[in-house]
Design brief:
217 residues, alpha/beta, 5-stranded mixed beta sheet, 2 helices, 10 strands
Length: 217
């Protein structure tokens, strides 16, 4: 292998490692939240939108027991609107744990809506209380959050039959993971370079000594 070929291989390895590391960071870590949720198929990117709609009572999990999309990423300041289909009986939208979402009692009327404007970055997990065990779970990822959850910091509004609440709480931490792709990739490139160039340097040194010996003769 020539030095040019080695440089090309090393550059490709570094680029691949950087791409893999960045991709891993971009995917939210839900901590097993969507295990057993039949309609979960990744996180839908709706960043940059002023308003995003989520269907309540969509088909999934053995009936009309799903939020669609189950997971969505939005920008801070986005209003998320949940709209009832009227199928699957009574549903509601309630945060898992100490979150800002609470649409109130169960609603089965088609066209009912409940909305919440997310201001703070984080991962906001929520459920339909009576159908949580069937897999009716959802999550709203706000901003660049990659893991953990946030407790609030935005204002909830509602229209229709679902009861809405206002929340003035501040976000209590995202628990997100941060990292850099440069550290491990740079170390890998250095190890490869040392392994390749050290024998070349030794060979060059031996050739130089041989030439010096020939001159002395």
């Amino acid at each position: 292998m020539t030095r040019r070929q080695f440089a090309q291989v090393t550059a490709g390895t570094v680029a691949l490692g950087a791409t893999t590391a960045v991709s891993a960071q971009q995917g939210p870590d839900y901590g097993g939240w969507f295990d057993g949720v039949a309609n979960f198929d990744g996180t839908v990117d709706e960043t940059g939108q002023d308003t995003v709609e989520i269907t309540v009572g969509a088909e999934g999990n053995g009936g009309a027991f799903a939020f669609d999309p189950a997971a969505v990423r939005v920008s801070p300041g986005t209003e998320v609107v949940w709209t009832w289909t009227g199928n699957g009986g009574g549903h509601n939208v309630v945060s898992d744990g100490d979150g800002p979402l609470d649409s109130g009692g169960l609603v089965s009327e088609q066209g009912t809506t409940y909305s919440h404007t997310f201001e703070s970055e984080g991962i906001y997990k929520y459920v339909c209380e009576p159908h949580k065990g069937l897999g009716m779970k959802g999550a709203v990822v706000v901003g660049a959050a990659t893991g953990g959850s946030s407790g609030g910091g935005s204002t909830a509004t509602e229209t229709g039959g679902a009861e809405g609440e206002s929340s003035g709480e501040n976000a209590t931490g995202s628990g997100g993971r941060t990292g850099s792709a440069s550290g491990p990739v740079t170390a890998l490139a250095a190890v490869i370079a040392m392994a390749f160039f050290s024998p070349l340097a030794f060979a060059a040194l031996m050739r130089r000594k041989a030439k010096q010996t020939d001159r002395q003769r």
